[in-house]
Design a protein that fits this description.
- Keywords: Repeat, Signal, TPR repeat.
- TPR repeats lie at residues 100-133, 134-167.
- InterPro entries: TPR-like_helical_dom_sf (IPR011990), TPR_rpt (IPR019734), Ycf3 (IPR050498).
- Residues 1-27 form the signal peptide.
- The protein is mainly α and 186 residues long.
- The chain has a single domain, classed as Serine Threonine Protein Phosphatase 5, Tetratricopeptide repeat (Alpha Horseshoe), CATH 1.25.40.
- The protein is 79% helix and 0% strand.
- It is built from ten helices and no strands.
- The chain has helices at residues 2-25, 30-41, 44-58, 64-78, 82-95, 100-113, 116-129, 134-146, 150-163, 170-181.
- Helix 2 (30-41) packs antiparallel against helix 3, helix 7 runs antiparallel to helix 8 (134-146) and helix 9 (150-163) runs antiparallel to helix 10 (170-181).
- The longest helix is centred in the first third of the chain and has 24 residues, at 2-25.
Length: 186
Amino acid sequence: MKARATFHNHIVAALVAVFAWAAPAFADGAALDKLFDELKSSDVQASERIEQEIWNEWSKSGSPAMDLLLERGREAMAAGDLPAAVEHLTALTDHAPDFAEGWNARATCYYQMGELGPAVQDIARVLTLNPRHFGALAGLGMIFEELDQPEKALEVYKAALAIHPHLSGVLDSVQRLEAEAAGQDL
């Protein structure tokens, strides 16, 4: 129980740091701003296309070598070779510490390995660099659910939906958590 409380304190501290410093830490380009504006007013079908365009933009580091490390990390994850994925993605975050998607991919890998502490640390870095990263917010919500903290999960999921109103799976999670909080079973 004490370990869980310590872990929780680290999560809260990371989130406070993220939201306190996030705004000045990242400046989007005009193309991403336009995509996010479109995302907020789109229907479900259009949002899928726009979301993919956003992910494509987020996946561009500006360096072919760093893009290759991201690709190799993702391929290793897809193949189930999580230790190799962490190696590729750690090299990426070491060489391109301001590239949010490198941190996000590594957070995903750590989550798949059951390493929630390192996943949360990487998510904090993602959100510091890119406060509109709805994928990182959704991942953080999943972690809060695993830690049996539904109120925090709901808060983070709602933050993700404020950015991406049609985010797959998150709408269902919000409805489920709200129903549970109201004492209803779905």
